Amino acid sequence: xxxxxRASAWRxxxxxVTARPVRTVAPATTEETAxxxxxxxxxxxxxxxxxxxxxxxxxxxxxxxxIRPERLTGIRAADRAAGTVTVAAGxxxxxxxxxxxxxxxxxxxxxxxxxxxxxxxxxxxxxxTGRDSASISAQITGLELVTADGSxxxxxxxxxxxVFAAARVGLGALGVITALTFxxxxxxxxxxxxxxxxxxRVTEEFDQLVGENEHFEFYWFPHTEFCTxxxxxxxxGPAAPLGRLGAWVEDELLSNGVFAAVCALGRAAPATVPxxxxxxxxxxxxxxxxxxxxxxxxxxxxxxxxxxxxxxPRQAAMAALRELRTMIERRGxxxxxxxxxxxxxxxxxxxxxxxxxxxxxxxVHMYRGTPHRAYFTAAEQIMTAHGGRPHWGKLHSRDAAYxxxxxxxxxxxxxxxxxxxxxxxxxxxxxxxxxxx
Length: 437
Description:
By secondary structure, the chain is an alpha+beta fold. It has 14 helices and 21 strands. It is globular, with a radius of gyration of 21 Å.
């Protein structure tokens, strides 16, 4: 186990969060993790485990011991008959997806990037889009958790079920996850259909588009009528992946290279944003391809930004989106980043943003370095008026009083926390705000 005293500062991917721990440690095993937690607790230090920094909040910040993920990696077990794979918590989703594909297996659903660690993704409720298939956390069948006294709990629906229920979206408040067991299935093919669609059409036909497709999402370009839609459905094949040149043009040149230049220009000269949005909205054309799931669900994201996302009851989403559009124009805001809309079915995880209700997500973004507070604050007022739940890893201003009102099992979660970490070894300012003391 590698340990560093007076550790250098840690920063997240977006660059808006910095942690200055007094120690860092990079354990390679559950046992090393447990020893590090017990020692830190004995020294009176707070403890946080960090992933790859793709959260925008201070959820992983600590001034005590920071646990790094880079050595806690790899597949621990694969049971094809049971349809499960156990993976060390510091493994990235990219590494997991590649390992699963090499075994002819796949997750059922996933988010749109693969840079996160598996533990970071589940702890903050990372999700993709799906009519029937839910978030990454909903695909967990077991987990291994180091608690505040250095004990190791192995949890599932039958072993410590109350801890398992809470820890599937645990915010890092219950302990340090060291391994996760996922339900997997034989690898399948997805047919992706991407095409432009007008704002009026996609909002009017939203329920139909969600109902007709296993996975539907769209992006709306503010100041325009342009949306780009994506429909993913299982296919019997054959595979017909994107050509290397076509993939590079769409995913690297247009979605990353040119888009980065457009964002930089919009930041420097806000008056150009509406015109640039119209150009960008027109640039993306229709395309279709068929490939294995992780190559369809995920895309490279190299343009750095800040993000806020709210989960709304699905029936309220299009009204909220129209209100967002009206607000942007009424206030004269200049928004150069598209608004993303995805869906998820109801699940039973206490702090899941989709708990107990069919959900639609509305995500707003701003290019890094562009003033974002006015936009995010106004958008948040719209989302909370519809009973919205903020994504745990994305910017928001909600506190425990608000969150207790939108999560029916909030008190159940905090009771598990009180039992596992009464002295708040895993506490920090973010958890104090969203969970209370």
